[in-house]
Structures are given as structure tokens and as C-alpha cells.
Specification:
By secondary structure, the protein is an alpha+beta fold. It has one domain: Ubiquitin-like (UB roll) (Roll), CATH 3.10.20.30. Helices cover 17% and strands 23% of the residues. Strands 2-1-5-3-4 form a five-stranded mixed beta sheet, with helices on one face. It is globular and about 25 Å long.
């Protein structure tokens, strides 16, 4: 299982957990497993078409998946996945 780190802004949706262990052979599989366990995250992470929301960055072992294979980026059980929603401010 991959370790998925949950940012503070999304922790209320996952019962306050800082990280979760989730199954998935790709980022798509990991995100689908996350949304299956915590459906309220679906609209925050994914578009209606099932793509990553443009305001959400996902990293596998420190590499942005948008520069890899996007949702099809493979993940191994020892990989760390980080979700980082964009924050607005000034």
C-alpha cells in the first residue's frame, strides 16, 4: 500500500488523519481508493470527467505527476503520495 499524505485543509474530510495507507497500482487507483473511503473528497480532487482538478497537485516521491503520466503514473507499495490543493491568498 502507498502512503498518502493528507494536507491540513483536507483532514476534516478524512477524520483528521495526516496520512492513509491505500492500495492502487497508479495514482488513479490510489485516488479512487481514497474517494471510495471518503466520498466528500471526490469533488475536491477530481473533475466531473474524472481528471485531476487543476487546482490539485499530486506528487509521488517528490515528483509532480503532471510531468510524469498524470493519473496513470504508476505507484509502488513503498511510494509516498502527497496531495497539495492550491491555496489562494495575498
Amino acid at each position: 500500500m502507498s502512503t498518502v499524505f493528507i494536507p491540513a485543509v483536507l483532514r476534516a474530510n478524512v477524520g483528521g488523519a495526516k496520512s492513509l495507507e491505500l492500495e492502487g497500482a497508479s495514482i488513479r487507483g490510489v485516488v479512487e481508493a481514497l474517494v471510495a473511503k471518503h466520498p466528500s473528497l471526490g469533488s475536491q480532487l477530481l473533475t466531473a470527467d474524472g481528471d485531476l482538478n487543476r487546482f490539485v497537485n499530486v506528487y509521488v516521491n517528490g515528483q509532480d505527476v503532471r510531468y510524469l503520466a498524470g493519473l496513470d503514473t504508476p505507484v509502488a507499495p513503498a511510494d509516498e503520495v502527497r496531495l497539495l490543493p492550491a491555496m489562494a491568498g495575498g
